[in-house]
Amino acid sequence: KYTKFSIFYYWINSLGQNTSIYSRLENVAIPSGKENTTATLSYDHRIMPLENIFSTGTYYCEVKWNNMQKMGKGVFVLTRGTGYVETSYGWEILITLTALLAALSITATALLLWKRK
Questions:
Q1: What secondary structure does DSSP assign to the chain, as a single string?
Q2: pLDDT at 47
Q3: Which of 2, 76, 83, 96 sits in a 20 to 30 Å window from 115, CA-based?
Q4: Distance separating alpha carbons of residues 18 and 108, to the nearest angstrom
Q5: Can you tell me the mean pLDDT for 20-35?
Q6: What is the C-alpha separation between 35 and 30, in angstroms, rounded?
Q7: What integer pLDDT is reported at residue 84 of this predicted model?
Q8: What would you measure as the largest C-alpha separation in the chain, in angstroms?
Q9: Is 65 in contact with 72 (CB distance < 8 Å)?
Q10: 24, exposed or middle or buried, with CB in 10 Å at 0-12, 13-18, 19+?
Q11: Dihedral of CA 74/75/81/85: which sign?
């Protein structure tokens, strides 16, 4: 009953649109003596290359038998264009904040000393 099944690969983009990538029909022979036992089969599918930066989304695998279907949890893939550089403003913000606090501190000290006279 479960020797014939279909495998479907698809992805769902950020807009919730479902796009089929690949599907195939499998017919697995059961070796003698292995009837009525649980079997696990691995199927790898590589999606290369990703078409463009709009290929970002969650990729799924689904298997369908006669009246049953099982879907994987999905893998989220984030694609970026060529030459993309992750921006980090950590040091710039820290230096700017330090300089601003130092300037305010110096100004406040000068005002206190000036008012004292």
A1: --SEEEEEEEEE-TT--EEEEEEEEEEPPPPTT-TTS-----------S--SGGG-EEEEEEEE-SS-EEE---EEE----TT------HHHHHHHHHHHHHHHHHHHHHHHHHHH-
A2: 67
A3: 96
A4: 61
A5: 82
A6: 7
A7: 63
A8: 103
A9: no
A10: exposed
A11: positive
- Whether the CB-CB separation of 61 and 8 falls below 8 Å is answered with yes
Interatomic CA distance for residues 22 and 98, integer angstroms: 55
Residue 106 has pLDDT above 90, yes or no: yes
Distance CA 68, CA 74 (A): 19
Q: Nearest 5 degrees, angle CA 2-CA 60-CA 10? A: 95
Whether the per-residue pLDDT at 98 is higher than 90: the answer is: yes
| CA distance from start to end of the chain | 98
Q: CA distances (Å), 51 to each of 47, 97, 115, in order? A: 10, 42, 68
